[in-house]
Structures are given as C-alpha cells and as structure tokens.
Design brief:
With 108 residues, the chain is an alpha+beta fold. Helices cover 34% and strands 35% of the residues.
Length: 108
C-alpha cells in the first residue's frame, strides 16, 4: 500500500463522513421546520429544505461555528407558495422566519 492509496482512502472516508453529517443536519432542520409550520398552522411543501448559504461565525461563547441558512416553501391556504428560512449556528437553530402570508378564511 502506497502513500497515494492511503490518501485516496482517507479522502473517500472524509467525503462519506461529510455527506453523512450534512444529511443528519438537513434532517434535523427539516424536523424543526415541520414542527414550526405545524405550530403556525401552515403546511410545509415538498417535505424538503434547501441549503442556501454556509459560512463561519462565532457563537455567543466566542467559538467559531458553521453558520447555515436553509430555505423551504410553505402554504397557508393551499393556493399560494411562500418562502421561509431557518438559520443554524453549529447545532442550534438561531432563527426561523416565514414570509408574510394570507390566512385561510375563518382564521382572520
């Protein structure tokens, strides 16, 4: 086994770990978005969240964490699609926001 082969094995293991970790984080954000939409009585569309930004920022304790912004779509009436976003800093959801949307008749 050469050094080149070891490097390739290490690289493949790292890629697999990164993919697994990214999927775990995406599933966590999806669950949180689903719960948030249920609390606000709107419907999460497509059962999906999309990564729209990634950066490094400091948390309140001063440690550098990965900052991620996820987008998702929801509906309140079943007719229109609206955007929402969730901001994750490290493993903590810092912020979740929905676009202004129409309320269904009877909730106004």
């Amino acid at each position: 086994m050469t050094l080149g082969n070891l490097f390739i094995i290490f690289l493949l293991c790292y890629i697999a770990w990164y993919w697994w970790r990214a999927k775990e984080i995406k599933d966590y954000v999806l669950r949180a978005c689903r719960e948030h939409c249920e609390r606000l009585d709107v419907l999460l569309l497509d059962d999906a969240v999309y990564l729209r930004g990634i950066w490094f920022k400091r948390d309140p304790e001063g440690r550098v964490r990965v900052w991620r912004r996820f987008m998702f779509e929801f509906t309140s009436t079943g007719e229109d699609r609206y955007l929402g976003h969730a901001v994750l800093l490290g493993r903590t959801i810092e912020h979740m926001e929905l676009q202004p949307h129409r309320l269904p008749p009877g909730q106004q």
